[in-house]
User: Which sequence fits this backbone?
């Protein structure tokens, strides 16, 4: 199984269910096309992070793990944000979830489990 697949090439299906990682996190992603790595790391309030397994429809041996960010409170987003136009919703309505870009990573607060 590979985590190196390019999700922009080919079709993938979600396998299993989403796993909530944390609602306390720092997310980092690449910025620009510089010849060196530039990272932007930030905390966004009222956002939950999930992990999903994606399997290639053309090669069943390709299984990747992807991060999904869900913005639970959009009331402070700018009203003309592209997500509102695409989804036909307004700020303060339902949450908005999206894939993170390839190469993104996060730091997550460990949550206690039963019996811990």
Assistant:
């Amino acid at each position: 199984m590979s985590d190196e697949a390019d999700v922009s090439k080919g079709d993938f299906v979600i396998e299993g269910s989403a796993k909530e990682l944390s609602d306390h996190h720092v997310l980092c992603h690449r910025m620009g096309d510089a010849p060196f790595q530039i990272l932007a790391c930030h905390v966004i309030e009222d956002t939950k992070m999930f992990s999903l397994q994606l399997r290639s429809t053309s090669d069943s041996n390709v299984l990747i793990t992807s991060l999904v960010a869900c913005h639970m409170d959009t009331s402070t987003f700018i009203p003309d944000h592209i997500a509102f136009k695409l989804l036909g919703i307004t700020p303060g309505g339902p949450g908005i979830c999206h894939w993170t870009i390839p190469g993104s990573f996060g730091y997550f607060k460990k949550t206690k489990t039963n019996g811990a």
